[in-house]
Structures are given as C-alpha cells and as structure tokens.
Inverse folding.
C-alpha cells in the first residue's frame, strides 16, 4: 500500500522542460524527435512522482497512460490522459493518492483527462462507452503495479474482441457522424487533422479493428512503383503537421488554419502552403482509402446473424477473371494478372458498373503483378476505360481506389503532376485530380446530349491535365492529350477532336461571359477557332457544363448556362448543317449468299482487334429477324460493340461486331440453331432476356431471398432524335442511351410490333453508352400518330436514371 502522508510533487518543472524542448533556435528538435522527447519527459516525471507517492510494484496502485502518451505520440499541447488503477484500496487512501497525483498537474495548468478506477470498474465503463473502450486499447503501463496494468490491458482487449460484433454498427455510425462534422482532410481549406476523414482518428480506428483481429493495422505497404505512401507514412505526415501546429500556435489545435500553413510548410521543409496542402491531401486520401477497406474487411469478417447466417457467400462472375464475392469485386481463382494487362480495367469496370468496391487484396495483387499496358491499348481495354468513365459518381470512387494503389498512375503517367495538386483559384473546392474525376462524373449525366459520349468523358478526364507544369495549362494539356490519345489507340481524327477539346475547353465560358454575343465578329471568331466543327461545338458545350458543375458552389447557374447556350445557338447557325447518317455498304459475298437461297446463314470470324468477333446473320427478311438476332447474341453473353443492318435480295443482312463476356463465343452453328428456333416461335428470346434482367415475377420472388449482383442505375437520361427521311413515311431515328444487356433486341422489337420496317441501322457502343440510328419505313396507311407512339414505346424500354424525389413542402 502507498505510504502516507502524500506530498504533491510540483509540475512546474515539467512545464518548463516541455517548453524548452519545443523551443526553436540552433538546437531545435524536429517533429518526431520532439514527440519522443515529450513522451520521455512525461514518463520520467510520472515515474518519479509515483515513487515519491509510494506507488510501487507492491503498492496496489498503478498509473496507466492512454491517449497520446499511451500511443507514444505526445505533442507539445496534448492532453495528458491518465488512469489511476487500484486494487480495491480504501476510499480515503485512494483519494489521498489521487489528489497528490492530480493537483500538481492542475496547478501547472496541464490539461489532464483523468479517472480513478479498479480493473472491474474500468472494464464496466468500457463495456458501455465506446470512446473509453477504444482508449483502453492504447493503454500503456507507466508506474506502480505492472500486474494490475497487465490485467486491465489484457482483459480490455479480450472484452473488445468478444464484443466487437455487437458494437460494430455503433463504430460505423460514430465514424460517419464524425466525418460529417469534420469533412475530408483532402478537400478542406482548413482541415481537421485529428477528426476529419482521413485523419488520425481513422488510424486509431484501424488499430482498434486490428485489435479485434478484423483488419490489418499496417495494410498495403507501398511498393517501389506506388505513388502514395503507406498508412504509416501518412500517419507520420499528419502527426508532423499537427506537432508543428501545436508548437507554432501555442495551443492544442487540431484544425490547420490558413494563417499557419506557410510557416508549418517551411518548418517541415515541405514548401509553401500549396505544397503543404498537397502533402496533406496525399496523406488524408491514403488513410481514407485504408479505413474504407478496413471497415469493409471488418464487416465481412464478422459473423452473420439471422437468415444471413444460413446463406454462404456466392461467387458470381462479372467478367473474364473477375467475380463478385461477399459484396466486393475480386479476382477469380483462375485469373493470372501477371499475364493479363487488361485485367486491371476489367476489374475497375465491374466495380464502376455494379457500385461494389474493389477488394483491397485484389488491388494489392494487381499492383504487385499486373504488367504495364502496351501502347496502343487493345480496343477491349479502351472500352473498359470508357465504361468506368461513363458511370457517373461510381467513376470517382473507382479512380480514387486505383490511384491510391498506384494502378491509375500506371495507366496515366501524366496524372502525377495533378495528383493532390491544390487549386490556385478559391472557387475550386477540389484538388485538380479530384476535380477531373468529378467532371467525369458530371459528364456521365450529359452523354446522351452528344453524338460522341466517349470523347466527352475522355475530354472531361483530361481537360485540366496540363496544370501543375507551369505555362498555359490548356496548351500544355492539348499536347498531353495527343500523347494520351495515341497511347489509348484512338483514331487520328478522334485524337484531333480530343486535343481541341482540351485546348479550347475554356473558349465557350470565357467568350460567353466576357464578349458581346450580339456582335457577329464574336460568333465568327468562335466558329473559326473550332474550324467549323459542329461536333466539337457540341462536345465543348457539354464539357463546359460538366466543368462548371464540378468546380464549386455557384460556379454554374442559370445565368452562365443561358449565356453559353446562346453562344452555342448563334455559332451553330453560323456553321454548315451536319450530314445525316447513311447505310453501310454490303459485302459482295454476303449479297451472293442472300441471293442463293432462303436459308439462315451465320458467319463467325475474328474481328479487327483481340477479343472481338464479327458475326454476320443472313436470313429471310421478315419482321422479327433483327430483334431475335440481337436477342440470341445477348443470351450468349456477346456484347455488341457495333452493328450494320441492311437487306438485299429479300434477305436481311445483319453484321455485328461482338465481344464475349467470358472466354470465346459459341460456334456459328449453335447461333444458327438458336436463331432458327427463335424465328419458328419455339423460343421467346425477349422473354428470356427479361427474365434474366429481373422483370419477371418469378425472378422478383427469387431476388427477395437471394441477392443478385447490383447494377448502378444510368446517370444520363435517354434521348431520341428524329430526322426526316427521303419521304413522309420514312424517318431516321437516333437513340442515345446507357447500354444494358438486350437493349438492341428491345428497341428493334418496338419497331416490329408497330409494323414499321427497319430498312437499315447503324449501332455503336461507346463505353457505357450506345448511339443507335435506325432508318424505318412506316406501314402503309399508318396512323399519323405512329411517330408519337413509337417514341413513347421506345422511351418505355430505354434505361433511365431514377426519378428525383420531390421536395417535401415546408
């Protein structure tokens, strides 16, 4: 038992010593050395005081540190978190020892978060108080009876492990509430280094999950090629900044105010406030990535309850070498990333389309073993990239996950200059790289407004890629866009358009807000700058809106939208009209087969690029052949990249460029047999497709008990454009929409049910979008309202974004 009477030991010498350690001058300690010295200083004072008070190994008392001292991360103005443990000692003895320990600290104005408890009392509090429970996970013996401290620490960790299943929802709720209050470190002008998303509290959360054996406290150490540091590197960076913030401000601040940024950047030899902001963004985003992955891993590792405990996770195929398992996108067992450069983008596309996160282990494996993509990229890789970019907000999280693990930088080495680059203009709320990703997300909702959605999302991704290099970022960015477009394998004409989009992405907003739009000279200058290209004008109009919406609050509004819209309208009038689409020519051998007999012919040959095939179907030209042909291809998991539909000699001649969802396509004979059955009415391909998509009641009943792989809803509303044909009964119908399985079959079935003949068609899939043009002839004596009914029926089968909930009346 501790001796009496207790004589308080003055703490003024502790304060003075701490002040000397934090002083500047010739012998100034760096941040890490200062933290270590402060830990040693407080331990020496506490152990000395404990000895003076009789708190020895046999006294029945122990001093336990939590918080910063417990972690060994003592900052100049950190609170001192201490727990005085006792072994059922008498109340007056406990009071005397506690007062002798706390009063000197209070008298010296040291902030102390203190408590006095037995081991049982401390564990009882921890069982109901989440903060207390997590605090004990960092507890460390300082002085007194080590067995008493060990008993508490060991049982606190055991209690945490055994109770984590019941506490996990509370952990997630508290974490999300903290993020909502404090924001993200990476995107706050004055970030909260401790409580913000990606801050030091999140590292402590990962430590707590690791203590429950649900996550790795040191996940994914950065490889030699990774552009981001490890979790430990990021934690150290935030600790250094917070240490210097305490030292400079003279207070225990957690929020980095702008007035201190330049001086802290200089003290840490990082640079000015912009360099410091970039370093903080890097650290914060790395920690945020790891904590997201840690929470998912922990949630999946916890035992399920109720009916969920009876269901084993199912591996569902998503793409070649890619599966969904337990709510995450993962590699299939047979996947060989070291021999498959396109696997990275297939994984990313599956994640973006489904909205499911990529498993951290999958990303780490890809980062370790996936080879570089050779230039030019194969068409399938470009297609997967376009799918990612066309998925709206999912594109942001997908790009972020790839970037945090070094994979995005391999695909786009130019990204390094804009990664975590803080904006120089106060109207921007994002770092430059995040702004590019947000612009892609906004552009995803505008893809049906343009004839080239693929170029729109690529332009959104690259429009500010020239920043961070000095000079005019539009000019520099245009040069980089040419380099990137060539590497992606774009056609030279498309590279030219992409370069012009980046070069002139500010042309419309600058002209609309600074020039007289009623002056013909202004309009002529814009038209001449764009070389009379209406397609480029259309793309720049959509890009200007996406760029404005992703910049910051109030940047894009009705005033700016009206001005730019007026400029575009005037410029369009000054340019020549666009030529209408035309049917593709028919190969002579296909004409010969069509003239030879009335049989169904299916030809399957290799396509122009790896993984693609050309399927030509020749069949007697009667209503239903096109929808059934498209349906048979969809049922066999053959994605249509493009199609040309024509007829000759009384036969339909339909050529499709397809890519199998998995492996190789089925034999041509099998496709022919299936189409023959469909044409004979023995198989209803549309009904089978709808059943797979979940439209049937039976499938809905199954889905209520067995979850299916989710698919993100479209972000862009469908759009139908009508162009006059050669006479009043012929029209060109252009359909722009988000691609879904079986869409071509559904669209053509609408025409067929209405009795309209599809004379020819051109189908193009660009990433997640389709541009389909149909030349249709109305049936003889058609109702004048046929066009309106066709449009309504087409919209009924086209995928559309979910309706926006109506605002509740105040």
């Amino acid at each position: 038992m501790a001796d009496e009477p207790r004589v308080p030991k003055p703490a003024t010498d502790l304060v003075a010593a701490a002040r000397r350690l934090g002083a500047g001058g010739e012998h100034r300690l760096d941040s890490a050395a200062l933290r270590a010295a402060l830990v040693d200083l407080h331990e020496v004072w506490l152990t000395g005081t404990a000895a003076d008070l009789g708190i020895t190994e046999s006294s029945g008392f122990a001093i336990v540190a939590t918080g910063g001292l417990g972690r060994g991360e003592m900052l100049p103005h950190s609170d001192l978190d201490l727990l005085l443990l006792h072994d059922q000692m008498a109340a007056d003895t406990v009071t005397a020892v506690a007062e002798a320990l706390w009063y000197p600290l209070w008298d010296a104005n040291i902030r102390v978060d203190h408590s006095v408890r037995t081991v049982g009392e401390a564990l009882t509090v921890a069982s109901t108080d989440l903060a207390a429970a997590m605090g004990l996970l960092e507890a460390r013996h300082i002085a007194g009876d080590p067995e008493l401290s060990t008993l508490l620490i060991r049982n606190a960790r055991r209690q945490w492990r055994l109770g984590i299943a019941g506490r996990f929802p509370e952990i997630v709720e508290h974490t999300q509430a903290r993020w909502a209050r404090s924001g993200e470190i990476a995107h706050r002008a004055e970030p909260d280094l401790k409580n913000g998303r990606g801050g030091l509290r999140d590292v402590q959360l990962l430590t707590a999950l690791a203590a429950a054996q649900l996550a790795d406290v040191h996940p994914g150490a950065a490889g030699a090629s990774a552009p981001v540091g490890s979790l430990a590197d990021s934690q150290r960076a935030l600790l250094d900044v917070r240490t210097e913030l305490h030292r400079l401000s003279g207070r225990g601040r957690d929020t980095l105010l702008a007035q201190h940024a330049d001086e802290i950047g200089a003290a840490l030899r990082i640079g000015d406030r912009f360099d410091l902001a970039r370093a903080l963004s890097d650290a914060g985003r790395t920690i945020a990535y790891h904590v997201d992955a840690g929470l998912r891993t922990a949630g999946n590792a916890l035992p399920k309850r109720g009916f969920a405990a009876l269901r084993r996770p199912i591996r569902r195929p998503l793409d070649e070498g890619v599966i969904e398992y337990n709510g995450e996108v993962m590699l299939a067992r047979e996947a060989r990333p070291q021999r498959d450069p396109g696997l990275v983008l297939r994984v990313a596309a599956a994640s973006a389309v489904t909205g499911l996160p990529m498993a951290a282990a999958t990303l780490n494996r890809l980062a370790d073993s996936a080879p570089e993509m050779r230039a030019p990229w194969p068409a399938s890789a470009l297609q997967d990239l376009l799918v990612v970019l066309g998925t709206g907000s999912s594109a942001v999280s997908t790009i972020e996950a790839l970037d945090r693990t070094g994979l995005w930088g391999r695909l786009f080495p130019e990204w390094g200059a804009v990664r975590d680059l803080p904006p120089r203009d106060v109207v921007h709320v994002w770092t430059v790289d995040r702004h590019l990703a947000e612009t892609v997300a906004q552009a995803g909702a505008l893809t049906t407004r343009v004839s080239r959605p693929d170029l729109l999302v690529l332009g959104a991704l690259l429009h500010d890629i020239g920043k961070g290099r000095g000079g005019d970022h539009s000019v520099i960015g245009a040069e980089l866009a040419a380099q990137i477009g060539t590497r992606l394998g774009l056609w030279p004409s498309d590279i030219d358009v992409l370069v012009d989009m980046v070069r002139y992405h500010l042309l419309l907003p600058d002209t609309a807000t600074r020039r007289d739009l009623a002056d013909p000279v202004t309009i002529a200058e814009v038209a001449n700058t764009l070389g009379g290209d209406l397609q480029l004008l259309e793309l720049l109009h959509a890009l200007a809106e996406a760029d404005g919406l992703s910049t910051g609050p109030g940047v894009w509004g009705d005033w700016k939208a009206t001005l730019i819209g007026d400029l575009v309208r005037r410029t369009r009038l000054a340019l020549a009209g666009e030529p209408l689409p035309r049917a593709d020519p028919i190969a002579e051998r296909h004409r010969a087969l069509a003239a030879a007999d009335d049989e169904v012919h299916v030809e399957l040959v290799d396509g122009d690029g790896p993984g693609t095939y050309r399927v030509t179907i020749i069949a007697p030209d009667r209503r239903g052949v096109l929808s059934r042909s498209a349906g048979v291809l969809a049922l066999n998991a053959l994605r249509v990249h493009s199609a040309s539909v024509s007829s000759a000699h009384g036969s339909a001649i339909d050529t499709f460029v397809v890519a199998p969802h998995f492996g190789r396509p089925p034999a041509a004979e099998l496709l022919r047999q299936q189409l023959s059955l469909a044409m004979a009415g023995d198989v209803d391909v549309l009904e089978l497709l709808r059943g797979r998509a979940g439209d049937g009641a039976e499938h809905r009943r199954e889905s209520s008990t067995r979850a299916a792989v989710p698919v993100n809803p479209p972000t862009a509303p469908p759009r139908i454009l009508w162009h006059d044909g050669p006479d009043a009964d012929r029209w060109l119908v252009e359909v722009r929409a988000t691609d879904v399985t079986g869409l071509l079959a559904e669209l053509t079935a609408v025409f067929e049910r209405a009795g309209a003949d599809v004379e020819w068609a051109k189908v193009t899939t660009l990433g997640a979008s389709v541009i389909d043009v149909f030349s249709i002839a109305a049936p003889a004596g058609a109702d004048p309202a046929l066009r309106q009914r066709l449009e309504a029926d087409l919209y009924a089968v086209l995928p559309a974004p979910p309706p926006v909930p109506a605002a509740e009346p105040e």
Summary: The first strand starts at residue 61 and ends at 65. Confidence is low (pLDDT under 50) at residues 220-227, 695-707. The domain at 12-170 is CATH 1.10.357 (Tetracycline Repressor; domain 2). The longest helix spans residues 146-182.
